[in-house]
Amino acid sequence: MSLSKKVLLNAYKIMATARAMSDLFEEKRDITSKYVHATSRGHEAAQIALGMHLLPKDYLSLYYRDDSVLLTIGMSPYELMLQLLAKKDDPFSGGRTYYSHPSLKDPDKPKIPHQSSATGMQAIPITGCAMGLRYKEVTGMMTDEEKGAIAVCSIGDAAMTEGEVSEALQMAVLKKLPILYFVQDNGWDISATAAETRAQDAYEYAQGFKGLERVTADGSRFDEIFEAVERAVDIVRNERRPVLLHTDVPLLGHHTSGVRREMYRDDLHFHQQRDPLPYLRNLLMATGITEQEIVGIDSIAKKIVIESFEKALKAEEPNPEDLHRHYYAPTPITREEGERTPAGKERVVMVDSALFAVRELLAKHPEALLYGQDVGRRLGGVFREAATLAQQFGDERVFNTPIQEAFIIGSTVGMSAVGLKPIVEVQFADYIWPGLNQLFTELSRSYFLSNGKWPVSAVIRVPIGAYGSGGPYHSSSVESVLANIRGIKVVYPSTGADLKGLLKSAFYDPNPVVVLEHKGLYWSKVKGTEDAKTVEPDEHYIIPIGKGRMVHLIEPSDDAPTCVVVTYGMGVYWSKEAAKAFAGQVEILDLRSIVPVDFELIRERVQIHNRCLVVTEEAVNNSFAQALAGRISAECFEYLDAPVQVVGSIETPAIPLNSELEAYVLPNANKVRAAIEKLLKY
Ligand SMILES: Cc1ncc(C[n+]2csc(CCOP(=O)(O)OP(=O)(O)O)c2C)c(N)n1
Ligand SMILES: [Mg+2]
């Protein structure tokens, strides 16, 4: 195929610019290596070919070596250098993240949701974008301008061996998603070779995914790779199905500024022979462009790059005060509203309150959808927490996923980027671990690291807690780990009304919210948990995240000491039972939200009662509860008449299966009672 002079000329100008940039970065490495960076040197032809086929309506996920894609879609060298030098006006992150880690929402360029620096982890979020595009298509939600939009996942050859990539590919073929996986194969994984790290290349690997169209091309030859990208993009855009394009490229620069080629590369000479620059220059000359004209292009590129660098060096540094911006996207839900206890209604079990909340949300919002393991039509959730929803809203909106917790959680990044509101489920808290990586690496940091461009709207429902001999893999508590992931919110309601109200606010919250739902409270089968059943609040009922609730209020007394028990989840019921032994001396504060926590309410109650006990289902050491007790001790010290106490489980690596062992490990009303007694006597 012969490419037009216009295309070749344009490609050459970009390649000359990219080359001038990597030359300059190397020449000025004393300055530029302050912050680690990689360049596309050697990969330019493949990247330019890709960039030339993208449209502003597309969704794009790049990796750290993709600066030539960024130049091709219209970023200027100056803008990229602002990121290289982590300046205030870095258009992607305001100096918060590395070079060539883009996040972009410009109307005239492809949309780039935030992606982390973790190799291969972008595959799931961007496949989530493709799933969202497909969902909008099949449900008629897609606007005319969006029609034909595709998702593109750019990825390195070594990153392809990450386990999460297979979850993404599986879903892409299963759902026939409009996505292009663009694998740049330079044969290196930092210093490990292909022979050491894989039994097959990405092209061969793709064969295992039925329905994944495969294309392979030499990425050092601009004409060849351009034609291959054209073919691949055409299939994805018009036939709406996934394609993997594998391209062999030389790696001519360093792995990164820190891991330099001279330390270990023994194949540079071989790679050098496949330099895409002279190859493209020859193609251009074959169209009649003279050597002199080419020299002219080179020197203009160099001049622009040097001037951009000088200007970027002088650009303003970020302000530490601005760091507080874009922690959470502002939520519209700031007040409790609606009717919590409508008159004349029967109490319902907690699991039904959740079901009704999700049903109302799906009925009201076409952009809402629910997916997870076994939530589809046949079962409606292993707890029947989604029963009948698929029947009512259809299998496109309520569907089963494979056992892929990483995909379930990570795909919300992409679904949310295309404007949808995913509600997802992890079947048991014990199995959140495979999804935790996505939660931490991608969801929690997206808003902050994109400098406010890409909040992730996700409701992640997680049944949690020990109950009825669930044993070591159906009983775990995980709130402390979640509480340590900055950027997400975590709620843990203990009644049906609170669960309904908090599911609603989780949905309207533009940030990722994990909703922990205690399995032992779902049906109030555990003795003493009858109050988890409540009258179902009305449709408008909503509770702001971060507001606790006084379960039981008492007045301070001059005659006897009093205390406040701060707790959540099952702890509320152990504490209620325990409090019966101390009439008028114990009040109970149900946190309802773990993050953010209602410290104002805690402070107010501690000031009144001067004694405080924190009750948790977790083992105490290094727990959320212990940290909270520490904060209460530090911030309320002058009001305290006794050290803040914590009651939790016995320290074991897991909850044992045997019912007596289980009971021995977990807190209960007696253990809480003993702690209260000690506290009141102190
Ligand atoms: C999850 C994760 N593990 C390890 C790293 C460190 N790391 C950065 S780049 C890299 C090699 C990636 O090679 P490849 O995907 O082939 O891309 P290339 O740099 O060769 O273009 C590694 C291991 C990382 N960023 N993320
Ligand atoms: Mg590589």
TrEMBL record:
Database matches in InterPro entries: DH_E1 (IPR001017), THDP-binding (IPR029061), Transketo_C/PFOR_II (IPR009014), Transketolase-like_Pyr-bd (IPR005475), Transketolase_C (IPR033248)
A Pfam short name: E1_dh
Xref: SMART domains: Transket_pyr
Top enzyme class: oxidoreductase
Cofactor(s) essential for the protein: thiamine diphosphate
Domain annotation Transketolase-like pyrimidine-binding: ranges: 348-524
CDD domains: TPP_E1_PDC_ADC_BCADC, TPP_PYR_E1-PDHc-beta_like
GO biological process terms held by the UniProt record: branched-chain amino acid catabolic process; response to nutrient
Listed SUPFAM superfamilies: Thiamin diphosphate-binding fold (THDP-binding), TK C-terminal domain-like
GO MF terms, alphabetically ordered: branched-chain 2-oxo acid dehydrogenase activity
Keywords of the record: Oxidoreductase, Thiamine pyrophosphate
Top-rank lineage group of the source organism: Bacteria
EC number(s) from the headed UniProt entry: 1.2.4.4
Role: E1 component of the 2-oxoglutarate dehydrogenase (OGDH) complex which catalyzes the decarboxylation of 2-oxoglutarate, the first step in the conversion of 2-oxoglutarate to succinyl-CoA and CO(2).
PANTHER family: 2-OXOISOVALERATE DEHYDROGENASE SUBUNIT BETA, MITOCHONDRIAL (PTHR42980:SF1), 2-OXOISOVALERATE DEHYDROGENASE SUBUNIT BETA-RELATED (PTHR42980)
Protein name (database record): 3-methyl-2-oxobutanoate dehydrogenase (2-methylpropanoyl-transferring)
Source species of the chain: Thermaurantimonas aggregans
Gene: pdhA
